[in-house]
Amino acid sequence: QSALTQPPSASGSPGQSVTISCTGTSSDVGGYKSVSWYQHHPGKAPKLMIYDVNKRPSGVPDRFSGSKSGNTASLTVSGLQAEDEADYYCSSYAGSNILYVFGTGTKVTVL
Amino acid sequence: EVQLVQSGAEVEKPGESLKISCKGSGYSFTSYCIAWVRQMPGKGLEWMGIIYPGDSDTRYSPSFQGHVTISADKSISTAYLQWSSLKASDTAMYYCARSLYIGKEDSFDIWGQGTMVTVSS
């Protein structure tokens, strides 16, 4: 099972928006409403930011939003802040044999 | 406070066995599934497998099936990740994570601090 495809990097100035794509197949992203997004600051534990494509866990700012169209999911971070600078990974359920698959990861830089 | 606390960093030689742990507290340990995730140096995150501590139902990602063993001891609210014969390529940070809510096994919101495993001769 190959990792989902994400752009290696994305950037924006404080206050701007950045959108990260996550492309899979009909066997993972396109086949289930089970896309999650994780924020990972190096040296720290990953943090769940979005689940079920577009739902935010308690405590996650509404600046973070998710969507999906076909085999591609997206994470948008609006009103970029310095603390948003991190690696972001998408994840999708991929069936009972594969379980889950992560994306390749995107490093977000706040300019 | 709901938390997962992992065992400390390990340095082992190739061929040795190892078992690292992940202790849950502040919630019903048997009601939520636990996942293990690997991050090799400079690389991305990889799902390894999950376990339901209540009945020890365990599932592995194909890449890890046969290479590691996931287990749990519900009496002490602890999940484990185990190797019988380590390889240099097992050098990585390993995270455990708890599912977001009971019955949901595809999103994980509580994470351990990570255990760094270094395998070197």
How would you describe this structure to a colleague?
The complex is a heterodimer of chains A (111) and B (121). In chain A, strands 1, 3, 4, 7, 8 and 9 form a six-stranded mixed beta sheet that branches. A three-stranded antiparallel beta sheet of chain A has the order 2-6-5, with no helix packed on it. By secondary structure, chain A is mostly beta strands. The N and C termini of chain A lie far apart (35 Å). Helix content of chain A is 0%, strand content 43%. The relative contact order of chain A is 0.34. Chain A has strands spanning 9-12, 18-23, 35-40, 47-50, 64-69, 72-77, 86-93, 100-102, 106-110. Chain B is an all-beta fold and 121 residues long. In chain B, 0% of the residues lie in helices and 50% in strands. Chain B has no helices and eleven strands. In chain B, strands 2, 4, 5, 6, 9, 10 and 11 form a seven-stranded mixed beta sheet that branches. In chain B, strands 1-3-8-7 form a four-stranded antiparallel beta sheet, with no helix packed on it. In chain B, a hairpin with a 4-residue loop joins strand 5 and strand 6. Chain B is globular and about 40 Å long. The A-B interface holds A 1, 3, 32, 34, 36, 38, 40, 45-48, 51-52, 57, 89, 91, 93, 96-105 and B 35, 37, 44-47, 49-50, 59-63, 95, 97, 100, 106-109, 111-114.
